[in-house]
Protein 1
Amino acid sequence: GNSVTQMEGPVTLSEEAFLTINCTYTATGYPSLFWYVQYPGEGLQLLLKATKADDKGSNKGFEATYRKETTSFHLEKGSVQVSDSAVYFCALSGTESSYKLIFGSGTRLLVRP
Amino acid sequence: DAEITQSPRHKITETGRQVTLACHQTWNHNNMFWYRQDLGHGLRLIHYSYGVQDTNKGEVSDGYSVSRSNTEDLPLTLESAASSQTSVYFCASSDPRGYEQYFGPGTRLTVT
């Protein structure tokens, strides 16, 4: 079945450092891919998405490219801020007959001043 | 603006009691979902619904039930609360055209 694997956290960076959070997936068909962010004490918010191969999703300085050949959707940001400290979840849509999302286990990011 | 709300935000209850967590969305979405979030387990799907009168079990449905009598609401009921159900519960909704889900703020439930 479909699944998502994320890198283990926590990831600790200094402010203005480059961020990469790895996400790989296993899927049949052509799923959509998502990154969600969860700030402390809040629900998940959609950060960005990509619906087909080679699409690049971007938002708030974050980017991720849908790579079908490597089954990856890595999250990147060129210069992180303290306010980016949060838990990041990679997710993919289910099969054509399902509206469920399959989530990775989440990666905690801590950015130090 | 459309939104999804959950109530209560915090709840403490005793083992064996019935508890209902409310979820209300004004997106007019057909699809609604309940998850629980626990350290080390990420998000786990409890129940979901694709429309009025439709309900389906997720991966951790034992001890939980839902009912869908209108588009806006999907209450989650714990029939007889157990300490293992202490968790943070999130409700989400989605439009079938986009798959992306919109989450509520969560309910922190403690079963003593």
Note: Chain B touches chain A at residues 31, 33, 41-43, 45, 48, 50, 58, 90, 92, 94, 96, 99-106 (CB under 8 Å).
Protein 2
Amino acid sequence: NAGVTQTPKFQVLKTGQSMTLQCAQDMNHNSMYWYRQDPGMGLRLIYYSASEGTTDKGEVPNGYNVSRLNKREFSLRLESAAPSQTSVYFCASSDMRTRQETQYFGPGTRLLVL
Amino acid sequence: AQTVTQSQPEMSVQEAETVTLSCTYDTSESDYYLFWYKQPPSRQMILVIRQEAYKQQNATENRFSVNFQKAAKSFSLKISDSQLGDAAMYFCAYNGNKLVFGAGTILRVKS
């Protein structure tokens, strides 16, 4: 039982390049989330998916797109990377999108945009 | 909008002693959940403890306990018998209909 996994662990991009961050969970959770973590700040929600087939914007969605490929996988795409998107990205999942949810996090992807 | 404030950017504690990390939040809701997450240097976010707002009893998990003051909107974390492995960044988080994090407190443990 691996929990939440993310690939890659680290990536360097040039401004304008595109890439997709992958996330998968094996806990049979309905809800999945993408966050970014910047220095001096807590995690901020980019996008979430309450269930397979649905996605919604979070606090900081600009410059990102997501795809809920199936119940296990939730990808985050940067179409044209910008230096402001240099950050650590976390994927998380939870059993249901209610107030009782405890979110379980992946190990993070460190992204550097030059 | 809900906000979470951690007023201590950094704290230090001697091994085996007790330390308390502060957290306050702002909300107009009456039903919500509060969490403390630990982030060690590995960056993995680990759930430490969870508190349901409608429960008056403070949550406890082994050496970790909270002091939840609903009227004051305060949710502090107490770590007893601190260990070297407790050194990490600690995040307080509020969940009404989405999870909102504080900026974090770095905890250093001295041997």
Note: The radius of gyration of chain B is 13 Å.
